[in-house]
Amino acid sequence: MRDLTLEANLGPQRKKRTRDHADEHLPRVARPLQPFPPRSAQGRAWGSHRPKGTMTPPSLDPKGHSSLRALIARYRDRRGVAIPLLADIQRQFGYLPHDVVEEAARALDIPAAELFGVATFYSMFRLKPLGKHVIRLCRGTACHVQGSLRIAEELQRRLGVAEGDTTEDGLFTLQFVACLGCCSLAPVMMVGEDVHGRLTPEKAIKVLDGYREGKG
After folding, report:
1. Looking only at Cα atoms, what is the longest distance across the chain?
2. Where is 23: in which H helix or E strand?
3. Do residues 11 and 18 lie in contact, with contact meaning Cβ atoms separated by under 8 Å?
4. Edge-to-edge strand order for the sheet containing 172-177?
């Protein structure tokens, strides 16, 4: 015969152990994320918590805001518009300003994360403005063999930027590309539409000095 007294005494402990063991198999619920505080308008992104229908993106003057409203109107009540919408914004502003993308997302009821996901996936989109002169240094095989790596390192050192960034004065944007199709001139780089070949690190810096002094 079972000892009912002992079982009665152990009952609460057995139930607790059983409940604790079951809890181990339940998914842990993360604590809710705290909303980010608003960021200031001085060149930084706005938070997505901004109430609908309030405030104009800080980078837009009245004319720019009017242009943005006209652009948004073309995509209202349409689906699958992320790529053409972003392309139009970039065409209008030269890149994809964070606050402008958020404003378009709010107006069209598209998650901002969806638009930024598309923008960061496709290399044709830019989240930063380009400089006055865009430097495209070839890093293809022919140019690499002829020393383009040393040129790349010198350009980054003298300009004070990494690949893909723009100098603080907004004069130069540095980009590395797979091939410029000018292998006979290796190593080669383009500044805007101008081709400069058979470079050394010293020659490349002299080329940029010419643009800094007003060439082009």
Report:
1. 103
2. helix 4-23
3. no
4. 172-177, 133-138, 189-191, 194-196
Task: Compute the half-sphere exposure of residue 165: CA atoms within 13 Å on the CB side of its CA.
Answer: 11
For residue 177, give the nearest of 215, 138, 216 by alpha carbon: 138
Say if residue 96 is exposed, middle or buried (CB neighbours under 10 Å; 0-12, 13-18, 19+). buried
Phi-psi region of 53 (alpha: psi -120 to 50; beta: other; left: phi over 0): left
pLDDT, tens digit (0-9, with 9 covering 90-100), for 32-43 = 333 333 333 333
Tell whether pTM > 0.85.
no
Cβ atoms 187, 138 nearer than 8 A: yes
Asked if omega into 27 is within 30° of 0 (cis), the reply is no
Q: Say how many residues make up the chain.
A: 216
Tokens standing for residue 129: 């403005």
The CA distance from 49 to 197, in Å, is 50
> Taking 70 as the threshold, does the pLDDT of residue 9 lie above it?
no
- The span from the CA of 89 to the CA of 77, in Å, is 18
Tokens 């022919």 -> residue: 142
Task: Read off the tokens for 187.
Answer: 């190593």
Residue of 96, 91, 102 whose CA lies nearest to 127: 96
